[in-house]
Amino acid sequence: MKEVMTAALKTAEGKFEVKQVERVKIPAEDWVLARVRVSGICGTDLRHWKKHEPELECKIMGHELAGEVVEVGSEVTNVKPGDRVVIETLLGDGDCEWCRIQQYNLCPNLYKVRMETVSRAFAEYIIGPANKFYVLPENVSFEEATVLDTFAVCLHALQQSGLKINDQIVIVGAGPIGIGQLQLAKLSGADVIVVDVVDSSLDMATDLGAVAVINSEKEDVYSRVMELTKGRGADITFECVGGEHMQQTLELATTVTRIGGKVVIVGGFDKGKMPIELNWQQLQLSQLQLVFSASYAFWNIDPEIKICLDLLEKGKLNARKMITHSFPLAQINEAFETANAKSETGALFVALIH
Asked: What is the value of pTM for the model shown?
């Protein structure tokens, strides 16, 4: 096997340079080497796009991927060379209290560990512990499997929310996370209203079963939600935008949620302190719950990504419809431009073919 591999490295200005680097190698007998076949671009990736981040310069990024097993250590029994797999990209240090109870999404060293190993999707090869590799059923393609990380994030948020059948749900944000959240909420028996500013994303939400969609640039969201919920408000609202828009989207989420309801914060915050003005007195008087959801891990005895893989295999989740664009890895910058300009391009989930 060759000693180098192709990878997209983050540059000082925040774009990518595709070049040859040293190939990763299996460090232990219970680890696996896989050839990446497809990786994906998500909202978290886009928050790093064109940003000067010295700590990420010359690093390999990406955390949504599927591939083919190339080599396994002598202690690996769950996969073999040639297997088509999805790779879970959350890996903690394995020693902390949270890792010991399979809550590795809360590991204090999560990002340090994962970004040195499993969270390097924009490359030709990847390594990880065997328990992070799941064999794909014949009816699940590499492209569809790449969306499983997104679905797992949504499933974790749904589990955190305590959503019940017949709940009235508002989802703020119709990106990949919002559309994934919609599908899982519908699957759980909820009625879902989706809010966004991109008409193509709202059209997809309608196609995937939203009872109503609201363009917040064209309609008054509060009035429309109250009309749809008969003046009550949402039982649960999922904030699925995050980033620089959190002031507006979190405030909106709290406004459209009923007294005694929940707001689940799925969208990611940027680093550092972020002042957000909310009507805190009203939130307290309404006994509104703010629930934070971070990535995914296990729920009870099952890995959440495996639960989503089972649902995808059974045809209960639609990943194929979410993949709107595909580019070869060599065109990663063009792919990011397309994903970033979704109002013009209609992009939702953009796949990179390796």
From this structure: 0.96
